Amino acid sequence: MKWSYSIARISGIDIKVHATFALILAYGAFRWGFPKGFEGESSLPGAVFGMGLMILLFTCVVLHELGHSLVAQKFGLTVREIVLLPIGGVARLEKNPEKPLHELLIAAAGPLVNVAIAVLLFFAGGLAVNFGALEGRSLLQTTDGPPSLVTLWGWLFTANVALALFNLIPAFPMDGGRILRAGLALKMGFSRATRIATGVGQAIAFAFGLFGVLSGNILLVVVAFFVFMGAGQERAEEQARTVLTTLRVGDAYNKHALTLNPGDHVSKVVDYILTSYQPDFAVMQGNGFLGVVTRDDILKTLATEVTDLYVAGIMRRDVLTVQASQGLDDVRRLMGEKGERIVAVNSGEEFLGLVSAEDIGEALVVASFVQLRDKRRADAAAEEA
User: Fold this and answer.
1) What pTM, to 2 d.p., does this model score?
2) For labelling, which of 11, 152, 158, 200 has a CA lying 20 to 30 Å from the CA of 365?
């Protein structure tokens, strides 16, 4: 993720902080450094306390994400990184777990970490009261106090309880939504489980949003909106996966695509783009594949004052290569992981053509309509029978 900076590495997982995390530190510094606003007195120790508290709170978020990540690693999944954002943390797995039980355990691990932290803090607070280090009554008013050990305890305890409860709400993209889907998938197909779980999530989000509007709670409305959209995206992703797993990369490449020679001029490619509407071109030397020239490459070249160049001077040589027999959904995920928009398709060592993200999108649309047509025909035949 752009604007993210690595601060640690645990179990082979990069822990990164996004630049916008500075907003959280600024909030902590202002909240306790200027308790009465800018018109009141400032407190440097208070500002330091506030920033330290925010760092500790997000350390709990890191531990939450590590809970997910370490369990995922136990099941052979690769975790690329954990990124801290102002809205929380994100653990980026190279792919989602395929077995429902694995998804259930991975999703449950995060909230369980927060439950464990809250329990430890609860007993630590009780011991502190028993030994006279803290007053029991003061623990009941912990989050509104000045910089102190009691305030620190209260914020950490409340935050971990809130993280556990909020993430267990059965709505995507929270952990509870994944737990619900995994539990359903143990009894039914993954696709059907996703439809039910995302439907429940969107219903909960709608209820939250309605309550937020009626109560004037704008933050709740914003949270409900993102939960609703997240559930919709999860449903769309599962639908795409279901359709694309029935296709191979060899089904999606353009078998009649125009190709270029390394000695062709850019002006020739411009003519091809205008007359064929083909955006990407393979550069060939005989039957050998050399690289790719895209529409963006041509536009960047035309924006310069350089005279008509050869294709060999602007083509990309480092093109990701896949086999025609690979599943289209697997290649789609691979392209996302590598940040590639286009791949070269081979059959063994023989180059066949190119497949772009747009080609996969078109294949998804066409295949979806074909499946819908076939389903309607099957339903009609069943009714006639």
Assistant:
1) 0.75
2) 200
